[in-house]
């Protein structure tokens, strides 16, 4: 029997994939494919362990790179927060740290914005003299 002559499987309420198929339709093709791939990985213990290790290595490396880049001008903090977001896909502790870090970054940005606005209000605009 060839693969073309098989009838498609029809899911019914109560079947294992019934709600997953409905969720996939709402999420879109890319997210549903990623979710399906992750579910397939979770079913295989060795593959799941390798996946989790890979996520931890990539996330930890990204956090480390961000920490190293923090003293330099540029997006070091954002890179570190991105690494925490990667780690947060597999660790609840990292997810909590990421939420706290993002909240702290937002407060710091708001404080910097308010200081800049206060400075602008204090200094009167200077008139430029035309050069002769």
Care to describe what's here?
InterPro entries: Uncharacterised_PGPGW_TM (IPR019099). Residues 123-132 have a biased composition (Polar residues). Residues 1-12 have a biased composition (Basic and acidic residues). Residues 1-26, 108-132 are annotated as: Disordered. The protein has 132 residues and is mostly helical. It has a domain at 62-121. Helices cover 71% and strands 0% of the residues. It is built from five helices and no strands. The protein has helices at residues 18-27, 29-43, 45-69, 76-88, 92-122. Helix 1 (18-27) runs antiparallel to helix 2 (29-43) and helix 4 runs antiparallel to helix 5 (92-122). The longest helix is centred in the last third of the chain and has 31 residues, at 92-122. The mean pLDDT is 80.
Features:
132 residues; mainly alpha; 71% helix
Give a short summary of the structure.
The protein has 132 residues and is mainly alpha-helical. 71% of the residues lie in helices and 0% in strands. InterPro entries: Uncharacterised_PGPGW_TM (IPR019099).
Distance between the termini: 93 Å
Residue stretches low in confidence (pLDDT < 50, at least 5 long) are: none
Largest sheet: none
Shape: elongated
The topology string of helices and strands comes to HHHHH
Kindly state the number of beta strands.
Answer: 0
The chain-level mean pLDDT equals 80
Strand content: under 5%
Rg result: 25 Å
Assign a percent range to the helix content.
over 70%
Structural category: mainly alpha
Q: Any chance you could write out the topology, listing elements then pairs?
A:
Layout lengths: L17 H10 L1 H15 L1 H25 L6 H13 L3 H31 L10
Helix pairs in contact: 1-2, 3-4, 4-5
């Amino acid at each position: 029997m060839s693969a073309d002559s098989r009838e498609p499987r029809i899911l019914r309420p109560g079947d294992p994939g019934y709600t997953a198929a409905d969720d996939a339709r709402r999420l879109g093709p890319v997210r549903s494919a990623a979710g399906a791939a992750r579910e397939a990985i979770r079913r295989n213990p060795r593959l799941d362990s390798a996946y989790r290790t890979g996520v931890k290595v990539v996330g930890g490396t990204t956090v480390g790179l961000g920490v190293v880049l923090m003293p330099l001008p540029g997006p070091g903090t954002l890179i570190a927060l991105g690494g925490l977001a990667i780690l947060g896909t597999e660790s609840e502790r990292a997810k909590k740290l990421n939420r706290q870090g993002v909240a702290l970054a937002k407060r710091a940005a708001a404080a910097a914005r308010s200081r800049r606005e206060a400075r602008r209000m204090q200094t009167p605009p200077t008139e430029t003299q035309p050069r002769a």
